[in-house]
Design brief:
- The complex is a heterodimer of chains A (about 375) and B (about 210).
- With about 375 residues, chain A is mainly α.
- Chain A has 19 helices and no strands.
- Chain A is rod-shaped and about 120 Å long.
- Chain B has about 210 residues and is mostly helical.
- Chain B contains 9 helices and no strands.
- The longest helix of chain B is centred in the N-terminal third of the chain and has 23 residues.
- The chains are: A mainly alpha (about 375), B mainly alpha (about 210).
- Chains A and B meet through helix 1, helix 3, helix 4 and helix 19 of A and helix 2, helix 3, helix 6 and helix 9 of B.
C-alpha cells in the first residue's frame, strides 16, 4: 500500500477516528514505519503545544471586558448587594409583648385605681374634679383646647409642657386603636393616650397625655411622683361598661399575644425562638403548598390592628417566613436545617408571581456569599 | 457551510455538568457553576458576572480561532453573553454552561466564517502562500505574554480559514469529526484531510517549539 495513504491516516488514527479494521492496519504499519511513528509523536507534541501556547493572558483586559459586557447588559451599576437590615420583626416582638403586659397592667390599675390610691387620695376628692370628656366624645381638638386651659401646678409646669419623648414605634403598631406605650426609664412622661382617630404616632405626641387622663393637677403630680402610669382610654369617670370593654379588649389581646412564642430581647436572635416563629408561620401553609390565611396569630405576630382583624395577605406571611428562614440559615450548624430553610427561600425566589421574590433572591445571594 | 446550528435552543444537546468536554473549570467547580447559573436564572446579576469571568477567555480563544479577527471576536463574545442572559431561563443548569455559550457564539461567528471562506479560494491560498511570520495580531498581542504564544497565534491566523476552523474545533473545543462535519457541513473525510493539512502546516511553522 502507498506510504502516502498511511501518512494521511495517521491524523485520524491519532484522533481515534478510524474504523476498527483500518485502525488495525495502521497499527501494523506503525510497527514497521519510523517516519509514521515520528509523525504520530509530532501530533502529540503539537497537541501539547496548542494547550500551552493558546492560553490567553492579560487579566486586566478580561476584567474590563467583563465589565463592558455587564454594562451592555444593563448591569452598569456594579452589582450591589443590598445590606440586609436585621429583621425588625424580632425587635417588634418583645415590644408587642411589653405592650400587651402594659395593657393588662394598666387596665388593672385603671379598674382598681381608687382602691390603690385610696389612702392617699380619697374617692370623694376625685368626684370633685371637673368631668373630663373622653377623647371619643369630644374629638382630639376639643380635648387639646381644654388642656390648654389647664394650668400646671407649681413645680409641675415642665410636666404639662414637656413634649413626650418619642418612643420608637414598632413598624405596624402605629394604627392600633389603643396604643399605650411605656418607657420604664422615663416614668414621668410615659403616660400616653391615643385617640382611635389618631392617624399617626406623631400626632399622639402632640397631646399632653397626662392631662388627658387627669385634669387634676394634684392627681398628675402625685402619680408622677410615684412613677405610675395609667391607661389613657380608662377615664376616671368612665362607666362600668367602658371599663368592661377595655378589660375585654385587653384580655383579647393578651390571648392573642400568648400565641406568640415568648421572645425576650436578649433571646430574640436565638435559634430556638427562630424555629418557633418559623413553625408558627409554616403552619399557615396548607398541604398543597398554598398559603392559608389565619388572621389572629399572624396579626399578633406582626402587631397589626387586632380590633379590626384585618387579614394579613399571604404575601406578608411569606415575607415573614423567608426572613425567619434566612436568620435560621445564618445561625444554624445543622446542615439539614440549613437545607430546609434554604429550600423555602429558594422556592420563593423562583416564584415569579411572588412579590417577595426579590427579597428571597437577595437572601439566597447573601447565603451564597456567606458560604 | 449552509447549515445553521440551533443547539442553543436545545441545551440538552450539550454536555451534562461534569461530563464530556473540558470547559476550563475543574470538576470541583461544577457545583459552583451550577449554583451561579441557578442564581443568575433568578436574576442575580452578580452571579452572571461571575459566569462571564469564568468563561469569557475560553470563549474568546475559540471565536478568535474561528474568525481571526480581534474586533469581531470581541463583538461576538459580548453578543453571546447578552443572548445567553436573555435566554438563560431556557437553560438547564444540570448541564455545563460553557458548551451552551460556545454554541451560541459559534452560530454568531458562522456568517463571518462563511463570508471569509467564500473569499478564500484554494487558488488564492496557494498564491498567497502560508506566511506564519508576518501576521499582525493587533490588540491580541497584549494578551500574549510569551513569544511562543505570539508565534502560535501568528501561525494559526495564517492558516486558511478552511483549515483553521477545523483545527480550532478539534483542538480548542475537542469536537469529534462528526460534530465538525455537521457544523461545517462538509463530509467527515474532508474534516480529516483539512485537519491533517492544518496540523502539518502548524508543525512546519512551529517545529522549533515542538
Amino acid at each position: 500500500m502507498d506510504h502516502g495513504y498511511f501518512k494521511d491516516r495517521i491524523s485520524a488514527f491519532y484522533d481515534n477516528n478510524l474504523k476498527p479494521e483500518e485502525r488495525i492496519v495502521i497499527e501494523e504499519h506503525l510497527k514497521e514505519c519510523e517516519e509514521c511513528r515520528k509523525l504520530l509523536e509530532e501530533f502529540e507534541k503539537l497537541d501539547r503545544l496548542v494547550e500551552e501556547h493558546s492560553q490567553l493572558d492579560g487579566e486586566e483586559y478580561w476584567e474590563e471586558s467583563a465589565r463592558k459586557i455587564e454594562k451592555s447588559l444593563g448591569f452598569d451599576k456594579e452589582t450591589q448587594v443590598t445590606e440586609i437590615a436585621p429583621s425588625r420583626w424580632f425587635g417588634l416582638t418583645w415590644k408587642l409583648v411589653a405592650v400587651a403586659a402594659s395593657v393588662v397592667f394598666l387596665t388593672v390599675v385603671g379598674i382598681h385605681r381608687n382602691e390603690i390610691w385610696h389612702e392617699e387620695k380619697p374617692e370623694q376628692k376625685l368626684l370633685n374634679i371637673p368631668k373630663v370628656e373622653t377623647p371619643a366624645d369630644t374629638g382630639m381638638e376639643k380635648i387639646t383646647d381644654e388642656l390648654k386651659q389647664v394650668r400646671p401646678a407649681e413645680g409641675d409646669e415642665d410636666l404639662a409642657d414637656r413634649e413626650i419623648p418619642e418612643v420608637e414605634q414598632p413598624r405596624e403598631v402605629g394604627r392600633s386603636d389603643e396604643v399605650i406605650s411605656e418607657k420604664a426609664d422615663r416614668p414621668d412622661v410615659s403616660l400616653r393616650a391615643v385617640s382611635p382617630t389618631s392617624p399617626e404616632p406623631s400626632d399622639i405626641r402632640q397631646v399632653p397625655s397626662s392631662a388627658v387622663i387627669e385634669k387634676s393637677r394634684e392627681d398628675v403630680a402625685e402619680h408622677s411622683k410615684k412613677g405610675l402610669t395609667k391607661p389613657g382610654a380608662v377615664e376616671p369617670t368612665a362607666t362600668a361598661n367602658q371599663l368592661q370593654r377595655a378589660v375585654q379588649k385587653a384580655e383579647e389581646k393578651t390571648a392573642l399575644y400568648e400565641s406568640i412564642p415568648p421572645v425576650k430581647e436578649s433571646e430574640a436572635e436565638s435559634l430556638a425562638n427562630l424555629r418557633l416563629q418559623k413553625d408558627s408561620l409554616s403552619r399557615l401553609i396548607v398541604a398543597e403548598g398554598r398559603w392559608q390565611e389565619k388572621t389572629g396569630l399572624v396579626q399578633s405576630l406582626k402587631g397589626e390592628d387586632i380590633k379590626n382583624k384585618v387579614p394579613r395577605s399571604p404575601a406578608d406571611i411569606e415575607n415573614d417566613l423567608i426572613q425567619i428562614c434566612y436568620k435560621i440559615a445564618l445561625l444554624t450548624d445543622d446542615r439539614e436545617e440549613y437545607r430546609s430553610v434554604s429550600a423555602i427561600i429558594e422556592k420563593v425566589a423562583r416564584d415569579e408571581k411572588s412579590p417577595n421574590r426579590e427579597l428571597a433572591q437577595l437572601y439566597l445571594r447573601q447565603l451564597s456569599d456567606q458560604n | 457551510m449552509n447549515k445553521e446550528f440551533r443547539e442553543e435552543n436545545n441545551p440538552q444537546a450539550v454536555n451534562k455538568v461534569g461530563e464530556g468536554v473540558q470547559d476550563g473549570t475543574s470538576p470541583g467547580d461544577k457545583s459552583t457553576e451550577r449554583r451561579l447559573v441557578e442564581s443568575a436564572q433568578n436574576g442575580d446579576q452578580k452571579a452572571f458576572g461571575q459566569l462571564i469571568r469564568m468563561h469569557q477567555k475560553k470563549l474568546f480563544r475559540y471565536i478568535y480561532g474561528l474568525t481571526g479577527s480581534f474586533d469581531q471576536t470581541e463583538d461576538i463574545v459580548q453578543e453571546t453573553f447578552i443572548k445567553a442572559w436573555k435566554a438563560l431561563e431556557r437553560f438547564n443548569p444540570e448541564y455545563a454552561f460553557y458548551p451552551w455559550l460556545a454554541v451560541i457564539a459559534r452560530n454568531s461567528a458562522y456568517n463571518q466564517i462563511s463570508r471569509e471562506e467564500k473569499k478564500e479560494s484554494l487558488e488564492k491560498i496557494q498564491e498567497k502562500g502560508f506566511d506564519p511570520v508576518s501576521q499582525e495580531l493587533g490588540p491580541l498581542e497584549k494578551l500574549l505574554d510569551t513569544e511562543g504564544k505570539k508565534r502560535f497565534y501568528r501561525a494559526l491566523k495564517a492558516l486558511p480559514v478552511k483549515f483553521r476552523s477545523v483545527f480550532v474545533l478539534r483542538h480548542f473545543e475537542n469536537k469529534s469529526y462528526e460534530e465538525i462535519s455537521s457544523f461545517l457541513n462538509v463530509p467527515p473525510g474532508t474534516v480529516d484531510s483539512r485537519l491533517y493539512r492544518a496540523r502539518q502546516m502548524l508543525m512546519e511553522a512551529l517545529k522549533d517549539l515542538l
